[in-house]
Amino acid sequence: MASLIGNDVYAKANETTSAKKKKVLKKTVAAKRAGSKKQTIKNRRASTRQATRTKRIVKRAAHSRKLIAAKRASYAKQGGRRKAISPAIHFGTDPSDLRSDAAYIYDVQNSQSLYSKDADEALPIASLTKLMTALIVLEGRQDMNEVLEVTRDDIDTIKHTSSRLPIGAKLSRSDMLHIALMSSENRAASALGRHYPGGLPAFVNAMNGMAKLLGMESTHFVEPTGLSPQNVASARDLSKLVIAAQAHPLIRQYSTHRNHVVNIGNRVLQYRNTNRMVSYSTWDITLQKTGYIAEAGRCLIMQADIQGRPIIMVFLGSEGKFSRTADASTMRHWLEKTRLPQLADATVATQS
């Protein structure tokens, strides 16, 4: 009898303990579900905010393009159609001759704006994006000798452009950065973004974070190659990016090399710089990047020494294959004949 009573008490104790465990487990599961639901709601709100911001920036860029198109139409009514620029690269000496939709010239030495044309309009920037891609890679202190592989994730699904880098090609991070900057290799830029800690989403977040840190108020990135027209920035913003990028010797070196050879195992690929100006003896270019997609037009950013001064030039939405180069020549001659002598005279007067 005593044994039966003992067993009965033991069974009841087990039932009580089991009930308590179930209750605790139930509470734990409920708490986890609530936390998960809360996190899901938080993620959805963040995604909604990001989507809203992207739409706002894209809408603003589209509005800027309409304004610029209206200016072109007004120009056409007043003076007729502009003449095409020949490969000989004829240039003027008046900034009003510029073919670019937006332009900004900045004197690094004196931290002074020298010329501005629609410099605060957010416009698509095409492969100028790769300058920020390079900055994130180097600021992240990633191993430049690590071998990265090109995969199907690097295929261009935006513009459906081709690439000389085949799927399965393996190159060091250094070589990927080199041909992305110098020859605007899109698959290389994509591979750099994918191999960032946290993958492509983390890389894009880092790009936008860096833009905010640099004070690039009109800038927004959605991917690292520049193929998306949703990558937008103003000419003034891009001058800030150049200042940050020129602090890295590799960016200066890689972006201004005339050519570079990479070995992908079964063959060797020869890459050339997309900017012919780096080979001109009349120019002393210390950093540069070109870009083009239909929505952005021809784009160019660079820093060059002109009369001993480091000058940043930014040109966005230029018409014609040679127009951005012609615009750079126009601004250089205008600076040499008009603007820089005035600055030199002002400096002498101040010192006296």
Average pLDDT level: 85
CATH topology of the largest domain: Beta-lactamase
Poorly predicted regions? 78-91
CATH class (first level) name of the largest domain: Alpha Beta
**Looking across the biggest beta sheet, what order are the strands in?**
2-1-11-10-9
How many domains?
2
Q: Tell me the overall shape.
A: elongated
Rg, Cα atoms, Å: 28 Å
Terminal-residue CA separation:
117 Å
The CATH fourth-level homologous superfamily of the largest domain: DD-peptidase/beta-lactamase superfamily
Number of strands: 11
Q: Helices and strands, in N-to-C order?
A: HEEEHEEHHHEHHEEEEEH
Structural class: alpha+beta
The residue fraction in helices comes out at: 40-55%
CATH architecture of the largest domain: 3-Layer(aba) Sandwich
- Helices, by number, come to 8
